[in-house]
Amino acid sequence: MSLSPFLKSFARRLCERGIRPMLAGVLLLPAAAQAASFRYWDDPTASVITLTRAQFVEQVRQHHGEARLVFVNRVVNNAARQQFEAVDTWKGFDRLVKDGFGDCEDFAIAKYQILIDAGTPSDRLDLLAAKDTMTPTYHAVLRYREDDGSHLILDNLTPMMLPEARRTDLEPLVAFDRQQARYFHDGAFHPVDPTRIELGGQRLSERMPHLMDY
């Protein structure tokens, strides 16, 4: 299964330089205080739902397996809009829904935070920075590692969660979580010193410890 022509066109219009390696001079702004509530468009009920973060996390806990991933992907995607930002400020869930917009890495970080808050093991999750071959530019998504070692991709540009092997539009660059980073080379991921990787003008080693704090 591959992305439809519609989704390819949609991604080409919307995915604008979410993660830009090797750009210097970016100011990292402090995260906003936790939002009291947020709204998202609920596709199944065709209505707008208002929740607090705590209520959202509790609802996520009630889902299990792939259903949990689908739910978080859908809610976060529908709680804000993709928008290019001249200053590459990384946002977590609270800042993303408060602003109502963000780059692709903001959506990935928001999903990462909510899933961990709801009890998903952190070693199942990481962020992937990749080259989007359709644009071409850079894109960020959240990955979930399944029992067999393969990954599902949670992408802010589509509600579909495809296996990474089927996302031929993405050329992996680096995957990382709070503890480690891996660089893609010769068809496989290899451990890399995060001080050697720069995303959005800041060393990855400085960003990784704060993935739950943005």
Automatic annotation (TrEMBL):
Q: Does the keyword Signal apply?
A: yes
Keyword set includes Signal: yes
Q: Which UniProt keywords apply?
A: Signal
Pfam hit, one: Peptidase_C93
Which residue positions does the secretion signal occupy?
1-35
Q: Which InterPro entries would you find in this protein's record?
A: Transglutaminase-like_Cys_pept
Q: Which PANTHER family match?
A: BLR5470 PROTEIN (PTHR39327:SF1), PTHR39327
Q: Under what name is this protein listed?
A: Transglutaminase
